Amino acid sequence: MQIHLSMAENGRVLIPAEVRAAIGLKAGGKVVARVENGALVIEPLDAAIRRVQEAMKPYTSPGESLVDELIADRRREAE
Predict the structure, then answer these.
(1) Cys-Cys with 32: which of 15, 48, 51, 64 at CB 3.0–4.6 Å?
(2) How far apart are CA 27 and CA 49, in angstroms?
(3) End-to-end alpha carbon distance in the chain
(4) Torsion angle of alpha carbons 64, 65, 68, 70, nearest 10°?
(5) Whole-structure pTM over 0.85, yes or no?
């Protein structure tokens, strides 16, 4: 899907309903915006979290909790 949008003087861009529906964005939903290769990418926050989690999977083992490891490291440092 590709559409043309206009930006208001204050920098606001309206995301049309059909685009919001296509990405599962509802009123009050949070989005993440980033610049990637000179383009603005906007995605729902939950999609961004899933994308990062998938990207990190190769660096973890099943049943391993990086949060637990971090907490254990901090406790050792505090002792």
Answers:
(1) 48
(2) 19
(3) 56
(4) 100
(5) no
Distance CA 32, CA 63 (A): 29
Express each pLDDT in 4-42 by its tens digit.
999 999 999 999 999 999 999 998 999 999 999 999 999
**Residue 22's closest CA among 52, 50, 44?**
44
Residue type, 36: E
CA 71 to chain centre: 24
Cα-trace Rg, the chain: 19
3-state secondary structure 20-73: HHHCCCCCCCCEEEEEECCEEEEEEHHHHHHHHHHHHHHHCCCCCCHHHHHHHH
